[in-house]
Amino acid sequence: MNMLLKQTFTATVLATMVATAANAAPAEAPSAFIKRVADGLISRLKVDHAKLQSNPAAVKAIVRQNLDPYVDGQAFTRIVMGTYATNQYSNAAQRAKFEQNFRNTLIENYGSAFAKYTNQTYTMRPFKDTGSKNPVVTIDFNNKGEKIPVSFQLADHGSQWKIRNINVSGIDLGLQFRNQFAANVKRNGGDIDKAIATFEPDADAAVNKK
């Protein structure tokens, strides 16, 4: 094969690889993805329920292993930081720090909530594929007879879906956390570094906001 043919062949292979990657989509249906994540987390909580009551660190480890890998941290960061996620207000390092702190704080919050898990069940609502690039899957959690709807907005990451936002009982957590962060920026006099370091998203306040 002469040099020209080699170059043409190489260019064709690369172009095919790029096109394939660009057109790649999760093989798993959005509803199947959420069911897999929910079942994986709940099954771990059931198996280790007895020891979780006295071991908060174990609960957080389970949440980190079974939920955190499926969260689109960058998308969540952009939603929560809002205008502060733009280069006008923050740089890439600050946004990365925010994402790390945000993930850790959510795990603390969810860890405490799941420590109280007492074998609740859930049902999945029928999924309607509207062709959206951010499909929404809704689960009704049964908490002592009360149904709590939780909707997961997903993002296509090529090989799998990831969760980019959550809505609980009609409350958009991403937007509520955005309001909380904006208020924290003001409390810190517009100092983004201080606002990021001290921000603690309050899921209970967000969900109970009317």
From TrEMBL:
This is ABC transporter substrate-binding protein. It comes from Acinetobacter defluvii. InterPro entries: MlaC/ttg2D, Tgt2/MlaC_sf. Keywords: Signal. PANTHER family: INTERMEMBRANE PHOSPHOLIPID TRANSPORT SYSTEM BINDING PROTEIN MLAC. Residues 1-24 form the signal peptide. Pfam families: MlaC.
